[in-house]
Design brief:
The chain is mainly α. The chain is built from 24 helices and 6 strands. It folds into 2 domains: 22-49 and 127-410, no CATH class; 415-570, no CATH class. A 6-stranded mixed β-sheet has the order 3-2-1-4-6-5. It starts with 20 loop residues before the first helix and ends in an 8-residue tail after the last strand. Keywords: Membrane, Transmembrane, Transmembrane helix.
Length: 578
């Protein structure tokens, strides 16, 4: 293995010694220690448990049953495979434990797999935390590799004086601080992109297998967060520029990338229609989800961008674009990076529906320009080291401040998780009307699981769902190809209800009925307006909701929290007359 050059003896143009690589590794170690603290020592109430995390974990665990992952629009495939291995490993340990206590039949082995899956459905947090640990390990390895590539870069491509500032800005960026402790696609995708981009911009082309490394990293990046397909002009363009702008090289690179994509995303072949529906259907809904008064989505800018401590960084990004064009040795690559960033900015902020996760590719592209903005100030203001480190510190502190603001909210007790735990302790088989928000976290009684399974298999309810999805413009006789494309969520849910109905004793857990404003996309949801009228009429024993209603409150969950206040009501003592 090639040893790192003695950077501790390198000097800046002013003659000042440059910090050694140890400081860069320390920056990565501090970030990972913070992630471990949030994940293991002081995790939020219920973890960062989100629907997105559950989709990834559920998809992995139930791949053992042959279920199509329900997160193909992200798609988060690397972490899905991690949870598949974790679920498989837990099942294997349980089988070995059972076999050590006596004879075990083939039917018994499959029964233990069901028991393992049911235990996961009752409490997802332990397996999710195990998955987080694997993800943190992967992020740490990628960041350390990125540091090594930065410190081995040719000084013509990356000035030695910029190496430590670049590492600090990469590590203390919002997406590196916030996302890795949560099983969402963004954290690992950020680490994959930074590793790939550093190799593209500063990596040594003579390194053995350099092009293969680029292709594998690109395939893993797209399989982890398909949204990065919109950075392909920069990725593929830079790859071609670095390897030679010839048709033969282009053909090899595109062919190699397709092969790597099929290896990392087998669902491109096995579930092509599902993936196209999930990604491009969701994309069209977000871009054209509602009328806008202007070309840009100023509501998002005013509510999610301007109030943040990083709101001033786009100004530095403009400065960094000029500095990157001036000081990076290849103008064509500089044009690809800046042009791709401009294209993403125009397209993302034109969308009618924007979440902070949608801007991830935009932020990851801009992080390199932020580093060059600090370098540009350093060069244009007389090669003063304090200017470089002051600019670096301000960029990093802005991201840290924004991350701390979010972490502060997440570390507050979760009213949702506390209400969820309480609802599970209500009397067995009591009829409990509850907000659909709890659908992904509550246990199911045998009665609930069987009723929901029947609803999911009901063709009339499914036809009505299709009619709602298409605004009543499609016939109830939907083509089978369209049904299989639209119902991957239902197929996984049916598997889960089958396991829960078989594994749950009849006298355990309340009988939950989930209500929603629009019963719409899930067969077993019931209309909220009618459900509340039925509660007033005495048809349910308890009501768990975020609504403040004039009934006897059994319990209130109103701690300061990032989730809403929830109330638990008992059946009215004097039911309303029909």
């Amino acid at each position: 293995m090639q040893s790192s050059p003695p950077f501790s003896r390198s000097h800046s143009p002013t003659g000042s010694p440059l910090p050694p690589i140890t400081w860069a590794y320390l920056s990565v170690a501090l970030v990972i220690c913070f992630h471990l603290f949030v994940t293991l020592i002081y995790p939020p109430d219920g973890g960062y448990f989100t629907t997105d995390e559950q989709f990834i974990a559920d998809s992995g665990v139930f791949m053992l049953y042959g279920a199509t992952p329900r997160c193909l629009d992200w798609p988060g495939i690397p972490m899905v495979l991690v949870f598949y291995l974790l679920g498989l490993g837990q099942s294997a340990l349980n089988v070995i434990s059972a076999a050590s206590h006596g004879g075990l039949s083939a039917v018994g082995v499959f029964g233990i797999i069901d028991q393992t899956a049911n235990a996961y459905l009752l409490d997802r947090i332990p397996l999710i935390r195990a998955g987080r640990m694997v993800q943190l390990l992967l992020v740490a390895l990628l960041l350390f590799n990125t540091v090594r590539t930065i410190y081995r870069a040719d000084s013509l491509r990356l000035p030695p004086v910029l190496r430590l500032p670049l590492v600090v800005i990469l590590c203390l960026q919002y997406d590196c601080l916030v996302w890795p402790p949560a099983i969402r696609p963004e954290g690992l995708a950020y680490a994959l992109f930074t590793c790939l981009a550093v190799q593209l911009l500063f990596g040594e082309q003579a390194q053995r297998g350099w092009r293969t490394i680029l292709l594998v990293l690109t395939a893993l990046l797209l399989s982890q967060r398909l949204l990065f397909v919109f950075t392909m002009p920069f990725i593929l363009g830079t790859m071609l520029v670095r390897t030679g702008l010839t048709w033969r090289q282009a053909g090899r690179i595109v062919g190699g990338l397709l092969v790597c994509l099929l290896l990392t995303m087998p669902f491109l072949v096995t579930d092509s229609l599902v993936l196209l529906k999930s990604f491009f259907g969701g994309l069209l809904m977000k871009v054209n989800g509602g009328a806008q008064a202007s070309f840009f989505n100023w509501d998002y800018v005013q509510t999610m961008v301007l109030p943040t401590p990083t709101a001033w960084l786009p100004v530095l990004t403009l400065l960094g674009s000029l500095a990157f064009w001036r000081f990076y040795p290849n103008r064509l690559i500089a044009a690809l990076l800046v042009g791709n960033l401009l294209l993403l900015t125009l397209s993302i902020f034109h969308s009618s529906v924007i979440y902070i996760t949608h801007t991830l590719p935009l932020r990851t592209l801009s992080v390199f320009l932020l580093a060059y903005s600090a370098y540009g100030l350093y060069r244009w203001l007389g090669n003063r080291m304090w200017v470089l480190y002051a600019a670096t510190g301000l960029i990093a502190l802005s991201n840290v401040a924004e991350s701390v603001m979010l972490e502060h909210d997440l570390l507050l007790p979760s009213n949702l998780m506390r209400a969820n735990a309480y609802a599970n302790t209500l009397p067995a088989n009591a009829r409990v009307l509850i907000d659909a928000t709890f659908d992904n976290t509550l246990a199911r009684s045998q009665k609930t699981a069987l009723r929901e399974l029947q609803a999911l298999q009901n063709p009339v309810l499914t036809g009505q769902k299709f009619a709602r999805q298409f605004g009543g413009k499609t016939a109830l006789n939907v083509p089978v190809a369209m049904q299989t494309t639209l119902l991957e969520d239902d197929r996984l849910t049916m598997l889960q209800r089958q396991v829960q109905a078989q594994q749950t004793p009849p006298d355990r857990f309340p009988d939950f009925y989930f209500m929603a404003d629009v019963s719409g996309f899930t067969n077993y949801f019931i209309d909220k307006k009618q459900a509340l009228a039925d509660f007033r009429a005495g048809q349910y024993d308890y009501l768990v909701t975020e609504l403040a209603l004039p009934y006897d409150q059994l319990k209130t969950f109103d701690e300061p929290s990032h989730s809403k206040t929830y109330y638990v009501y008992k059946k009215p003592t004097q039911p309303a007359l029909p």
